[in-house]
């Protein structure tokens, strides 16, 4: 719409709202330039060790190993835990593809389990039902920033002598019963992709309290080079190293973490307040034993919403210059995993995970998002809901 004002005019245009964008500023620039000017721009340099030490402190663990991305971190954790061809690893059906892909990278087979209602993390009852003589590990994904039910998962794992890896790619700073996520399992992994709460552009981290896992991860990530005999490689390794430039950005992000988390919580509070009268829609559900973090704005549409309708809403929002993302598709429905087992304690085909996948969308979470922007998004969703009631 063009508004004329005498000889001048103003073009009024709705601002496009992406789902997410990195929050990087002057401190990141300062640290990055320091790393650049040092000449150490590859996988050696002071910021690498600093980032590892500070991230271990952040998680309350003894060790942290910086790597090139979260998928590599998960692959290394599985390798360090001895996962190999013929093994089975329990994985939630509702998660990002990297969780299952890393299992395949080891030659092992993912076994998919059901989700907990609302929060979507893996259901401990389904986990127990999925255990077979081939089961060697459980990957507990802290989905969309909400912790999994770790006490019950760890109880099951200890009973059956299974490795537990926390996939905390989406959950920087979350807590389970007051304890930091990342410090609960045998190992945990984090991602620092550009849309994460803490970002290095690309990057990842493995954390653990166990020295043997720390040594194996560090060994494998650098071509499996013998630490006492340079250029001697007793096993086949990987080039999964992080650069000093990425680590510099990570150090700045950690220093700003409270600030980064604070504005995300404020954005979710805007959504909850704006939608308080629309009872059919819920945002970022939480259990009373958890202190989740809002990686994304998680919007659950009315119960019974089918995927086709959810996708129509996303198109509606797109036409209004509001970006969105669907919840993850179930991994067991994808071609690479069609032959893998799917286990639901009730004997059905993962009905909880399917409903959550169909009902869920992620809405914009940006530092520059205002209350007015959230009102605009609410109006669009409200308009769509009213339209559906007339169809």
Provide an overview of this structure:
With 391 residues, the protein is α/β, with parallel strands linked by helices. It has two domains: 26-255, Aspartate Aminotransferase, domain 2 (3-Layer(aba) Sandwich); 257-390, Aspartate Aminotransferase, domain 1 (Alpha-Beta Complex), CATH 3.90.1150.10. It has twelve helices and 17 strands. The chain has helices at residues 26-38, 46-59, 70-80, 97-105, 124-130, 150-160, 211-221, 244-255, 257-274, 307-319, 351-359, 371-390; strands spanning 2-5, 8-11, 63-67, 88-92, 109-113, 135-141, 163-167, 175-176, 179-180, 187-191, 204-208, 282-283, 290-291, 297-300, 325-326, 342-343, 360-363. Strands 3-11-10-7-6-4-5-16 form an eight-stranded mixed β-sheet, sandwiched between helices. Strand 6, helix 6 (150-160) and strand 7 (163-167) form a beta-alpha-beta unit. Helix 9 runs parallel beside helix 12 (371-390). It is globular, with a radius of gyration of 22 Å. The two termini are 30 Å apart.
Structural class: alpha/beta
CATH superfamily of the largest domain: Type I PLP-dependent aspartate aminotransferase-like (Major domain)
Give the domain tally.
2
| Broad CATH class of the largest domain | Alpha Beta
In whole angstroms, the N-to-C terminal distance is 30 Å
Largest sheet geometry: 8 strands, mixed
Alpha plus pi helix count: 12
Trace the largest sheet across and list its strands: 3-11-10-7-6-4-5-16
CATH topology of the largest domain: Aspartate Aminotransferase, domain 2
What letter string, H or E per element, gives the SSE order? EEHHEHEHEHEHEEEEEHHHEEEHEEHEH
- The pLDDT mean sits at 94
CATH architecture designation of the largest domain: 3-Layer(aba) Sandwich
The Cα radius of gyration reads 22 Å
Shape: globular
> Which consecutive residue ranges, at least 5 long each, have pLDDT under 50?
1-12
């Amino acid at each position: 719409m063009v508004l004329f004002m005498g000889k001048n005019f103003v073009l009024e245009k709705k601002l496009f709202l992406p789902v997410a964008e990195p929050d990087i500023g002057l401190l990141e620039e300062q640290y990055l330039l320091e790393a650049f000017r040092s000449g150490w721009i590859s996988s050696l340099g002071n910021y690498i060790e600093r980032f590892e030490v500070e991230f271990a402190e952040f998680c309350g663990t003894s060790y942290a190993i910086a790597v090139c991305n979260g998928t590599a971190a998960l692959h290394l954790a599985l390798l360090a835990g001895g996962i190999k061809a013929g093994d089975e690893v329990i994985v939630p059906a509702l998660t990002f593809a990297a969780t299952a892909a890393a299992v395949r990278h080891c030659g092992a087979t993912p076994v998919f389990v059901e989700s907990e209602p609302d929060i979507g993390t893996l259901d401990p009852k389904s986990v127990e039902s999925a255990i077979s003589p081939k089961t060697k590990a459980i990957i507990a994904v802290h989905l969309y920033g909400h912790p999994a039910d770790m006490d019950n998962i760890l109880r099951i794992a200890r009973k059956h002598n299974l490795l537990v890896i926390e996939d905390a790619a989406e959950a920087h700073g979350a807590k389970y019963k007051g304890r930091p996520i990342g410090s609960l399992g045998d190992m945990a992994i984090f991602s620092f992709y550009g849309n994460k709460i803490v970002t290095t552009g690309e990057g990842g981290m493995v954390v653990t309290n166990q020295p043997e896992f720390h040594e194996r991860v560090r060994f494998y990530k650098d071509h499996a080079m013998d630490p006492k005999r340079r250029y001697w490689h007793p096993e086949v390794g990987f080039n999964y190293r992080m650069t000093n430039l990425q680590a510099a950005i990570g150090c700045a992000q950690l220093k700003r973490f409270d600030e980064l988390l604070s504005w995300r919580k404020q954005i979710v509070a805007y959504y909850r307040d704006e939608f308080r009268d629309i009872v059919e829609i819920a945002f970022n559900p939480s259990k009373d034993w958890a202190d989740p973090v809002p990686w994304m704005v998680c919007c659950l549409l009315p119960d019974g919403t089918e995927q086709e309708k959810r996708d129509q809403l996303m198109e509606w929002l797109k036409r209004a210059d509001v970006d969105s993302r669907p919840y993850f598709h179930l991994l067991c429905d994808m071609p690479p995993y069609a032959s893998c087992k799917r286990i639901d304690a009730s004997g059905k085909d993962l009905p909880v995970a399917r409903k959550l996948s169909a009902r869920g969308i992620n809405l914009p979470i940006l530092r520059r998002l205002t209350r007015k922007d959230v009102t605009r998004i609410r109006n669009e969703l409200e308009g769509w809901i009213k339209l559906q009631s007339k169809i």
